[in-house]
Structure to design on (882 residues):
């Protein structure tokens, strides 16, 4: 899939109701996106698949859903107040502000990318700009009321470390998993939903004994890599990139990114890091709370190390969409198919009446649709002729189309069409539910 | 349940991992709460129940997941920039700020509730304070960069009205449903999770022909009332309160609240309003986009009316928790039970080894637990003796406890204990999965 093909994804997302530009009737809000009817279902399925895999299927991980607003000291401890910054330079001529690493020019002499005026860094030195979104809580807008929208969900986990240990009687190793919105005032967002100021994360903090940390780190790199493969991402489009020593944060012991080959190049979906005891230590220091763990078997008290698999929900969603998109020639026309895994598709089944002006056919189709609703996500659709409906369902990834026709009224059989093969089978309505649930299991 | 009993709910929530004070190690952040492992599961189930009922089980509603950040003109159109305000008064003596309706005193002469100084409203007149949380997008913190955290999810639906109609080929009547976070800078938050600055909403905007609006309004009041009852809320604790004419916003045709009898009194869980064409008209005016709908059957173009069932997720969660909490005397001790509906309970089944130092029992218990994980949400627990484990599972609402004992190793039968009756049955492991899934269906 080429760079150009990214436009096809954006277009499909708009046309079929996956992703719309936010506040579009007002000209949009830069790099902010709304998930439409199909996108909302798809993203729910993606998050559910993660939650089931990491929280429900395991006995060593607890879920959490912490607030976006947190005590400002959290961000002091985490290092975000002091260190989560970009160096920005003002152009004296046009008054615009730029990231210093985006300015053309040499040494201290740069040129404004907007108005082309000269920028002398000795005259207008770069200033550090914090990337956290700021707000004010309470009735007075002053420094004391400043609060931040979390730039990562991880800290909600660290500040609840004791609460989870105590309420859930946990022993090492164990993890805490969370899905939620985070905000960063990115100066250069872009590439559709890949980099946005508002985004959703799925993060695990997995607490271990220091001596076990390398082993758990390696285990989690594998676990997370396989999660993407198990949901159908093409293996040749997915790779691991181990961070070099000079790329690592000063406290990090190791870090590996899971990258996907987007039309705009290899880009990070998720990072798995061995963060040592940095986070718990920082919070213990600033809060003056004892966050150590007592290991009864070893009769030893210590700060656990943490392995952090941190993924972006929107990035994963975009990767799965790009990966699943395909065009095929069928009888001289192009068929677009969203070949998503059955766990991720918005609608598992569509029920279509062959003739929407035949009351008896419509009634039978709606009855079948209703009877399937207890078992799977199924939608009735009569908004076009059957050929068009099939193509629309292909574009949104629906795995099975059930069509009711005149013959169905007589023989109680319906046509079941499979998305990828386009094979059609006549199935008796009495066994339809079992037929479909077996296929979808 | 009395006012005093609210403390028991708060205590249980902390003790068992449902709800923690946010950033607690830093002394907390006023009226901000984190959902712990049990709360995260419970809230997920609550939201899923709503989503399934309004989006999956119906063919007339589409889902949506719009961004929290929206174009500022949205809030101009909705009336929030100009009208979403509290009148606040400053005390000249102690410099604190208060809502005017919270000041004791007569006419223009009030007294500061904090320092008891006199406040003369002629000298310090009240000023309007907007309740939207403000932030700045982009690298410059000036008026042009001001953005708001949405104070309601509803507007994300209205600005996407055309996108949904066009991508989903919708005809009236149809609705758009959304679950998501909203923020309000409440001056007096309180009552645990009932009124908080960050909260989650579940809102439907249901678009209808003006002449059908009263009928749909009545239908939705019933639908939504029954949703709470179907999930097990006690009927005598739930009531409808029809708004008097003088309570209605100027554009509203009618409004009914669904109220629950909390320990702190009857309070609103959800409002169902007939908002006329106010919202679409405002957005059409400010965006200069045509938001009218053409009714082919009637050959008529008009702005649809909207019926809005708007509920609070955190309020519903609190109501279900309060409603389900009960204490019973069992053999002279108090048993606490969270009698939540099976759809809402965090864990459906717990698997417990009678003796956790018997490797063969533990192995069998873990094997049973793993085998059930594909079918339901099940947790292995060996963190205490069996009596204590039963009581803990009762407190978090787990419907079935499966206990593996010495006898199980020989006869392949396990003890299944039901939460409410405490009845125990010996069940063969070969039919255990079917036994439990039938009960939980």
């Amino acid at each position: 899939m080429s760079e150009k093909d990214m436009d096809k994804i954006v277009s499909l997302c708009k046309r079929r109701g996956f992703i719309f530009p936010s506040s579009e009737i007002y000209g949009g809000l830069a790099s902010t996106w709304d998930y439409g009817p199909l996108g909302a279902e798809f993203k729910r399925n993606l998050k559910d698949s993660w939650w089931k895999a990491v929280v429900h299927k395991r006995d060593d991980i607890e879920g959490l859903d912490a607030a976006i607003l947190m005590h400002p000291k959290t961000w002091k401890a985490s290092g975000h107040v002091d260190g989560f910054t970009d160096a920005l330079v003002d152009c004296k001529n046009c008054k615009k502000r730029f990231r210093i690493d985006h300015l053309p020019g040499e040494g201290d002499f740069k040129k404004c990318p907007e108005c082309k005026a000269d920028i002398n860094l000795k005259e207008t030195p770069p200033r550090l700009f914090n990337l956290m979104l700021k707000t004010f809580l309470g009735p007075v807008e002053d420094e004391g009321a400043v609060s931040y929208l979390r730039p990562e969900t991880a800290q909600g986990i660290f500040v609840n470390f004791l609460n989870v240990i105590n309420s859930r009687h946990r022993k090492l190793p164990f993890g805490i998993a969370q899905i939620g919105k985070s905000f960063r005032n990115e100066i250069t967002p872009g590439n559709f939903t890949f980099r946005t100021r508002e985004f959703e994360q799925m993060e695990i903090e997995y607490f271990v004994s220091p001596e076990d940390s390398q082993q758990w780190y390696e285990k989690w790199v594998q676990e997370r890599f396989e999660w993407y493969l198990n949901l159908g991402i093409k293996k040749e489009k997915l790779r691991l990139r181990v961070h070099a020593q000079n790329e690592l944060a000063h406290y990090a012991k190791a870090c590996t990114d899971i990258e996907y080959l987007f039309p705009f190049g290899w880009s990070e979906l998720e990072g798995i890091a061995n963060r040592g005891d940095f986070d718990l230590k920082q919070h213990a220091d600033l809060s003056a709370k004892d966050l150590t763990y007592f290991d009864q078997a070893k009769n030893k008290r210590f700060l656990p190390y943490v392995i952090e698999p941190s993924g972006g929900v929107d990035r994963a969603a975009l990767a799965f969409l790009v990966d699943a998109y395909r065009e095929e020639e069928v009888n001289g026309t192009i068929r677009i198919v969203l070949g998503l895994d059955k766990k991720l598709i918005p609608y598992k089944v569509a029920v279509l009446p062959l003739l929407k002006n035949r009351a008896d056919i419509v009634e039978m189709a709606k009855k079948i649709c209703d009877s399937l609703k207890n078992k799977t996500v199924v939608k009735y659709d009569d908004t076009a002729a059957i050929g068009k409906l099939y193509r629309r369902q292909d574009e949104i990834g629906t795995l099975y189309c059930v069509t009711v026709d005149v013959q169905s009224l007589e023989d109680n059989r319906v046509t079941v069409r499979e998305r990828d093969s386009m094979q059609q089978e006549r199935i008796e309505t009495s066994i339809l539910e079992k037929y479909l649930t077996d296929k979808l299991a």
